[in-house]
Design goal:
The protein is α+β, with helices and mostly antiparallel strands. 54% of the residues lie in helices and 15% in strands. Strands 1-3-2 form a three-stranded antiparallel β-sheet, with helices on both faces. The radius of gyration is 14 Å and the shape is globular. The mean pLDDT is 89.
């Protein structure tokens, strides 16, 4: 994976006022979600980011997991990291809520 993809992913997250899913980053950068998720995995140890992932086991959802990246506003501040974690969790919660509200198996 090229460093430029990492830089592009990092830039997309930095430019967003809110956490982004790997699909949203992929759409913004016009890159495959898998490539974005590989870049996020490589960036997982970056203290300026929180990268969270949850399994999505419903076959109707169309993917096996949800990956959300959130910017840490002030590195070194444990409360900033906690706030980024909470923001990422909120994105996931919203996705699941919206999915369950609209999904109907017959």
């Amino acid at each position: 994976m090229s460093a430029s993809v990492h830089d592009q992913v990092r830039g997309a997250i930095d430019a967003s006022p809110r956490p982004l899913t790997s699909s949203e980053i992929g759409a913004r950068l016009r890159l495959p979600r898998l490539e974005i998720e590989q870049a996020l995995e490589a960036l997982r140890d970056d203290p300026r980011l929180v990268v969270r992932e949850w399994p999505m086991e419903d076959p109707h959802f169309g993917m096996e997991r949800i990956v959300v990246a959130s910017r840490v506003e002030s590195t070194g501040d444990p409360m900033a990291a906690t706030a980024a974690e909470a923001a990422a969790q909120q994105v996931y919660d919203n996705i699941v809520r919206d999915f369950l509200a609209s999904h109907r198996c017959v």
